[in-house]
Write a structure and sequence with these properties.
Layout: H1 2-19, E1 22-25, E2 38-39, E3 44-50, E4 57-64, E5 67-74, E6 80-85, E7 91-95, E8 104-109, E9 112-120, E10 144-149, H2 160-171, H3 173-181
Parallel strand pairs: 1-3, 2-4
Antiparallel strand pairs: 3-10, 4-9, 5-8, 5-10, 6-7, 6-9
Helix pairs in contact: 1-2, 1-3
The structure holds calcium ion (2 copies).
One calcium ion is lined by residues 26, 29-30, 49-52, 55, 58.
Length: 182
């Protein structure tokens, strides 16, 4: 019974994520630090936003259950660059031009929380997230963008109905089983 309950929880979480693939629209203007990054919602496969002269970097947080992760820019009107950071702000992947001026990154990641940044060529980010602290106004012709990405697994602010499922999925089956025994 315990195993069945755990299996049902995982199956429900997975089917829920698959069925609700969605676009995350930048809320106002995403910042360029871990504190001002925007958390994309569960199941997000596409981010739509814009770079402005006021903040030339947009940063998004997401959780990942592990495995191959990919992100690419499309529908762009400027020369994009993509950065993938770990929780410490260290750069895991970077790409400027993969197809024309569009960017593409692909990296196998362990489970955890990551940050994805987009900006316009050719801002010198300084090798890690901290380099964005001095992000100046405009570094090229900014504008709207779309980022296609592997469906992210979770979010910092999930919907109430899915909070328990996501929490259990993140904690892992072991703890979930212990809770069921308690
Ligand atoms: Ca923005
Ligand atoms: Ca580019």
């Amino acid at each position: 019974m315990k195993k069945m309950i755990s299996a049902m929880i995982v199956a429900t979480a997975l089917s829920s994520a698959a069925a609700h693939a969605t676009t995350y629209n930048e809320d106002g203007d995403a910042g360029h630090t871990a504190l001002t990054a925007q958390s994309v919602k569960n199941g997000t496969t596409q981010i739509k936003g814009a770079l402005s002269t006021a903040d030339s970097v947009d940063l998004f947080k997401f959780k990942w259950n592990g495995g191959s992760f990919a992100a690419s820019t499309t529908n762009i009107t400027f020369d994009t660059m993509l950065f993938l950071f770990d929780q410490n702000g260290d750069t895991l992947a970077f790409n400027d031009d993969y197809s024309g001026l569009a960017s593409y990154i692909n990296r196998t990641l362990s489970a955890g929380e990551y940050m994805l940044a987009i900006n316009a060529y050719s801002y010198n980010y300084g090798g890690n997230l901290a380099g964005f602290a001095n992000a100046p106004g405009i570094r090229g012709p900014n504008g709207a963008y779309t980022i296609n990405l592997s469906q992210v697994d979770s979010t910092d602010v999930p919907e109430p109905a899915s909070l328990g499922l996501l929490g259990l999925a993140a904690i892992g089956l072991g703890l979930a089983r212990r809770r069921k025994q308690a």
